[in-house]
Amino acid sequence: MAYIPRLNSNGISRSPYWYSRNPYYNAGYGMPNCTCYAWGRFWENADVNGDFSNRPALSTGNAQDWYNHSDGYSRGHTPALGAIACYAGGQYSGVGHVCVLEQENSDGTWLVSESAWNGFFFRASHSIQANGDYGYGGYTFQGFIYNPVSGGGSVSPAPDGWTFIPRLNNHGMRGNPYWYSLNPSYTVRHHPLPNCVTYCIGRVFEFMDWKRTYSEYLCPTFTTGNADTWWGYTQDGYERGQTPEIGAIICFSGGLGGHVMVVEEISADGQTLTCSASGYESQRYFYIAHVHWNGTTWQWNSRFTFQGFIYNPFVHGGGNTFQTRGKWFFKKELWNREEWLLQ
Fold first, then answer.
1. Does residue 197 contact residue 226 with C-beta atoms inside 8 Å?
2. Is the CB of residue 6 less than 8 Å from the CB of residue 102?
3. Distance (Å, rounded) from C-alpha 275 to C-alpha 196?
4. Counting Cβ atoms within 10 Å, is residue 28 exposed (0-12), middle (13-18) or buried (19+)?
5. 163-194: per-residue pLDDT in tens?
6. Domain spans of the chain?
7. Cis peptide before 194 (omega within 30 of 0)
8. 23-152 belongs to which homologous superfamily?
9. pLDDT tens-digit map of 12-38
10. Pairwise CA distance, residues 90 & 220, whole Å
11. N or C: which end of the chain has fewer CB within 10 A?
12. 63 close to 34: Cβ distance less than 8 angstroms
């Protein structure tokens, strides 16, 4: 599985990983705090299905206590993605420091994400040596705690029991929370169906939430802006490309703000895509469209220009699933009632 580095603080504020379900936050030691941050980031990486499972068994003591804590995780002195670098001492607090390895630099150093007690809330701008040397602060390197999820695990392959079922009609859509009460394009932007943005958010929500939990935490992180902004909105964390795949979003520019549809089936010769959609301009609540390969590009309607595909991570095997959540969706009141939502 590919590892998605955390290079900014998007989605941290009010997330249960760092707030309501984090033992440091609940004990009064929330961020800015290196232990609160690393504990939450370790959980974010391990929680590949977005259901708040795989809760960490890490220490809840000072940073310098982590490496010698009996938690069952493997340890060593070789850097790895998603691993926690542990330090003792230090000239600031004297109780050590922990940070998370996010990516290896071309010079062999490792970029880390971290927070600091009585200091910065979040940063991903400092790199440590491969031997663990932090570079300043008087810290004594102890070793790395490895995340058991392969590669660090910010992405998820299809879970056991998940099967893609194409949607070729509108059965079950009317009043369904995926397109209505749980859909941010409907509730926040007030764009009811027919609308291609609202439809695609709901459709991806439908097949990602394969257990039908209707948890708001599983809503996809697409922008709620016009359809022609989807292709460029890489902050959603999903991988993109020019090759069609089942479950992918096909993006077009043109018309009255672009258009997006979901690839439901691909013909045996690979030349025709059967896509489900909804149309604000055409006022069609639901319809099936066929997009054809003309030898140069994918073509559907002469008014629209093909941009590319946004891939479904369960099919593509890469890209973010539920971890990167846009600020447009998670309002404070949702976090305050998270226990109710997850029941």
1. yes
2. yes
3. 12
4. exposed
5. 888 999 999 999 999 999 999 999 988 999 99
6. 23-152, 184-341
7. yes
8. endopeptidase domain like (from Nostoc punctiforme) (3.90.1720.10)
9. 888 889 998 899 999 999 999 999 999
10. 41
11. C
12. yes
Residues 289/275, Cβ–Cβ less than 8 Å: yes
CATH superfamily membership of 184-341 = endopeptidase domain like (from Nostoc punctiforme) (3.90.1720.10)
Both tokens of residue 98?
Answer: 């922990």
30: left (phi over 0), alpha (psi -120 to 50) or beta: beta
> Whole-structure pTM over 0.90, yes or no?
no
Q: What is the DSSP letter of 5?
A: -
* Partner residues linked to 144 by β-bridges: 76, 85
Q: Cα(264)–Cα(276) distance, rounded to whole angstroms? A: 7
**Contact, 36 vs 112, CB < 8 A?**
no
Which among 309, 249, 304 is positioned nearest to 282, based on CA atoms? 304
Q: Which residue has the tokens 């391990």?
A: 46
90: left (phi over 0), alpha (psi -120 to 50) or beta: left
- Which string of DSSP letters, residue by residue, matches 273-304? EEEEEEETTTTEEEEEEEEEE-SSSEES-TTE
Contacts of 282 (CB under 8 A, 6+ apart): 194
